[in-house]
Design brief:
The protein is α/β, with parallel strands linked by helices. It is 42% helix and 13% strand. The chain has 14 helices and 9 strands. Helix 1 packs across helix 8 and helix 4 runs parallel beside helix 5. The longest helix has 16 residues. The radius of gyration is 18 Å and the shape is globular. 47% of the residues are buried. The mean pLDDT is 97. Bound molecules: S-adenosyl-L-homocysteine. S-adenosyl-L-homocysteine binds next to loops.
Length: 332
């Protein structure tokens, strides 16, 4: 276990980077093995009621063309993903109230018939909704804390509260979901100390999955003039998370690949063991523009799967054939 001051020291210098990445790779190998779990990601609506300062889906962005994939089409995408071999379907969207509990429940129940694990990533809902989704068959919930710095959180998320975000994560844990959380690295005014606190927070809640990505400046947001986060710093936060939570699932995030053409492979060699390829068709990909220059927006699901499989095999890793439950969760 690393102390907060040790984490800060590592984050503050680049001298130990190689050592940390190599160690995280070994800890990954020893604890979760060489399998890479693929998750089929369905970004089903880019309509959002929130105003997160960094996100291109924020309601005030009038420049993006909004879409919503209807229930039957979502289910068809899940079916196709399952046919392609995906054992986990991730349903992600903006906070779109059109998708009432009843609609989400129906989608979960239909997708569950495919014998896949379901991860929801649809933001803040009430305890009763989270409970109903779990009862309908959802297995995992992904909701990043984004930052544990209270001040920064409130600047980045107008009309939202960090207390409620923490509460949502507690509810999800209490309800028996596999808990996925994470943070952004490189937000304006984000301190190194707060990143250390983020890592310690993941440990304190015993998260089962942690996704970490660099902040990428979006031209149609108030942060349009801010610098992007640093790829290597984001990678280091990820690697340290692996050291502190050795048997969780850690995705090589798409945002990492957006800042570095080999970002996901570098991440897989520095502690990550999960990749989340997009399984929707080209028409929706570009529109789910949380940040600009997203990768693979011109590819279809078959191309994406083929491309990432080849990359994974090229580094001597294999694609998992099971649902890829977090061992941290299994062994509880
Ligand atoms: N509405 C859902 C899903 C959000 S999108 C929710 O609230 O959980 C998924 C993630 O994209 C967010 O958690 C955020 O960390 C990330 N993201 C959003 N805008 C970004 C940006 N400009 N750069 C990098 N990551 C971003």
């Amino acid at each position: 276990m690393l102390s907060k001051s040790e984490i800060i020291e590592i984050l503050n210098t680049n001298e130990k980077n190689e050592e940390i990445f190599t160690l995280a790779d070994k800890v990954r190998h020893d604890n979760v093995g060489d399998e890479v779990h693929l998750r089929g990601l369905i970004e089903f609506s880019n309509i959002c009621k929130r105003q997160c300062m960094y996100c291109g889906l924020r309601s005030e962005n009038k420049a993006i063309s909004r879409y919503r994939i209807d229930e039957d089409e979502i289910i068809r995408y899940a079916q196709k993903a399952s046919d392609m071999g995906y054992k986990t379907i991730v349903l992600q969207s903006g906070e779109d109230e059109y998708f009432s509990s009843d609609k989400i429940i129906r989608i979960i129940e239909e997708i569950k018939k495919l014998d896949v694990a379901i991860t929801l990533s649809i933001g803040e809902r009430s305890y009763n909704e989270y409970k109903a989704f779990k009862e309908a068959g959802a297995d995992r919930y992904l909701i990043r804390i984004e930052t544990t710095d209270k001040n920064l959180y409130s600047k980045m998320h107008p009309n939202m509260s960090i207390e409620n975000r923490f509460r949502c994560i507690e509810y999800i844990k209490e309800l028996g979901y596999e808990v996925g959380t994470g943070c952004l690295v490189g937000l304006p005014e984000q301190s190194i100390e707060s990143l250390a606190n983020d890592i310690l927070y993941f440990k304190s809640i015993e998260a089962d999955m942690v996704g970490i990505g660099p902040f990428i400046s979006h031209p149609q947001t108030p942060l349009c003039h801010s610098n992007n986060g640093d790829f290597w710093l984001a990678l280091k936060v990820m690697a340290l998370t692996r050291l502190i939570l050795p048997n969780i699932n850690i995705p090589a995030t798409t945002a990492m690949e957006t800042l570095n053409p080999n970002g996901r492979i570098i991440a897989l060699k520095s502690g990550a063991n999960v990749v989340m390829p997009n399984v929707t068709s080209t028409e929706y990909r570009a529109k789910y523009e949380i940040y600009p220059n997203k990768i693979c927006i011109n590819e279809n699901p078959t191309q994406c799967r083929g491309c990432i499989e080849a990359k994974i095999k090229s580094i001597g890793r294999h694609i998992s054939q099971d649902k890829g439950q977090s061992l941290h969760f299994t062994n509880k």
